Amino acid sequence: MFLAIETTTDFFSVSLGDGKNIPETIKIHGRQHSERLIPSIEQLFENQNLYPKDLKAIAAGRGPGSFTGIRVGLTCAVTYAQVLDIPLYALSSMDIAGKEIPAPAIRAFRNKFYTADYSPQGDRVSEYIIVDEKEMEAKNCFEIEAESKKLYWEAHRLYNERAEGDWRNIQPIYVMNTVYKKKNM
What we know:
The chain is of the alpha/beta class. The chain has a single domain (2-183), classed as ATPase, nucleotide binding domain (Nucleotidyltransferase, domain 5, 2-Layer Sandwich), CATH 3.30.420.40. The protein has helices at residues 33-47, 67-84, 93-97, 133-138, 148-160, 178-183; strands at residues 2-6, 11-17, 24-29, 57-61, 88-91, 104-107, 112-115, 129-132, 142-143. The radius of gyration is 16 Å and the shape is globular.
């Protein structure tokens, strides 16, 4: 069984599946990540008559996204991985989307979006940045939703390739809006 946790945006989602399919995903809108994440995961286990000890690996979103959302999701995922001694794959929903879309964008705050540029081979070729709606249009960005299901399938692929998934080497992706920072300093 694989658990995927995506908490980097206003939505959060958790998925639990066996590697062949994902029988259930819980998706919640609103900034209630810290209050609702663990109960949502427990509900997934209960609904499928499973226990955390049944997990083989975990996937978690590492950003870019909400500072608090990233920390809530990664802390939860690291705790499970450490206690259960299983691999943790910290992944970027944007990087996964970049394998199919040259300029994916994830809603950040107000009318701002996180984005980056990707090569036709799906490699990121720019830094993560924050843009407004006009810049997003000018760059031909395509808005995506950060979803646990996509993290799940990427982690499953990495697990099958025997990629290292060490919870001790997790690096969150935080993108600071430098324009906002300068105006408020």
